[in-house]
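for the record, two folds in this file. i put them one after another cuz i was lazy. first one right below, seq on top, structure tokens after. the second one comes after a little note so u can tell where it starts
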Amino acid sequence: MRQSSVQDGWRALLRREWMPALAVLLGGVLLHSMNVLMLATVLPTVVGELGGAAMMSWPTTAFLASSIVAATCTGLLTAAAGARATFCAGAIIFGIGALLCALAPAMGWVIAGRFVQGFGGGLLSAVAYVLVRGTFPEATWARAIALLSGSWSVSILLGPLVGGLFVRYGDWRSGFVAIAAIAGVLALGAFRALPAVAHQRSAMPRVPAGRVALICAAIAGTSSAAIVASPAAKAALLAAAVGSLAVMLRLDRRATAPLLPSDAFSLRTPTGVGLWLVLLVCVTYSPLQIYVPVFLQSLHGLDPLSAGYAVAGASLGWTTAALVVAGATGAWPDRLMLIGPATMGIGLLAVAVLTPWHPLPLFPAIVLVGVGIGLCWAFIAQRVMSSARPGDEAVAASSVATVQQMGFALGAALAGLAANVSGFSADVGSAGVAAAAFWVPTSFVVFAAAACLASLRLHRLQPAKS
């Protein structure tokens, strides 16, 4: 009976009339996520031709910062122009940014192009959640979100591969031209396939420059904290970033056109607690992508591609677990929202113990962290969306992607702080690297435990079902 209902659920989502819309949404998220990783493959070649080695991290930072700002503004833009128009605009902006990179005569142009791309990609990722809500029935949301999450896993396999193929058999500029062409096709497909979700047809609201500036300040603080050497400076920058976000939330709750739900990060509502869960599980996940590849290369002599694909096991675990549990009903979503963070914490402890020892048994531990977030992610996002207050539906849906990227950015800064405090540096010996390899993942178990507490709080806020 249960297996039949699960299959019926997938058939309900994969209906012929919905397949074009679903394909467009998956394509948008895949385009955005794949380009995050493709740049890592082509950037050394770009620097070799254009120079600017000192600015090598700036294209990624510009992309991430712009993506977060765009995701934050998605609810505002969809209310004014509609979700379909916002998605099409995101694809076009993404393509324009790719063309700027393709035509770049210097590294500064590449940074500018990545900033434009990041804004378009942020719109694509965030509005996808709005369109899931407006296109499919609520019973299929968890499955649709699981497929969107799977796009990130596919991108980890395709991004470096595509970038490597263009570098080896063509040139990096042609890669960006191809991306621009794909973005144009995606915009046309979106206009034809996506539904015209109802929106508030009103005058274009005023850009909330003050709140956006506070978000940018928080991003700058977290990004700077990841690269400064002094632990005291890291702590000060993180405190400034948290303070900027706190002020932004206070101003946003009083605004007539909020960027986030009116109860964002409240501990008294399901949407507010759900956003805490989104933030905490993303912070917990972040050290895998940043430092574990470095540890594998330094301690065990793996080449960069092998180390990167070893860490990609986490994304494989995320996607597999999300697809397996997407049809869970009854009490299981609440259970999985507790089991998921607990599994992530266990996985991180295993990573901490095994990384200094041997890379082979480390792979299952990495996969376990991905399985943990995959078990709970779709249900957290569904709870945030379904519990939104009247009038907050669009901003609640788009806030999932906004807070997700904020969590990754904050996690990157905290991972840098943990690595610095544990003695990790570019010229440190193997003993120092081994110490950092233990303490960096161990320190993030605290966030997994906090996510478990948030999950228990979310369960208590659920109304009793008869």
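(here's the note) second protein begins now
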Amino acid sequence: MSQLEWESFTKKIYIKSKVENLYPLWTSSEGLTKWFLRDAEFKSSGGQVRQVNEPTQQGDFYIWKWHNWDGQEEGQVLQANGKDYIEITFSSCKVSIHLESKNSKTLVTLRQFEIPTDSKSRLEIHQGCSNGWTFWLANLKAYTEYGVLLNETEEDLRNISLSGYQFVNM
């Protein structure tokens, strides 16, 4: 991609951690709820709930719930190689996370793609998810490198109209 486009976006961040330490933070319920979600559940294609520290696998289904949002995201794990790559369905499109060791750090590359190009998707998915992932990648870095969480877990922001558009730490 040589120019910005509505069908996808990419976000990158360097994190002072090893790939093998970051991968479980993306692929297990226990890992995801440390820095990202209020609750996460993975089920095998046969319907068996995975243990909280068990890594998800290709073909699994997930249910994710955030702090300060009553909804949930449900999707499928399209790829999970057990070491440095995962791809999921997410918000009517796809998200991939690639972890690459670079000079004693890990380059985390998140790509959201196959985004519909209608006006609503441009606002809610391209703009909304792009902003959201920027925050969550910064939150992952803060948590991993300093043990600090930036997302709001104490104040209930759900009854504030437009809170998802105004608060930077949802």
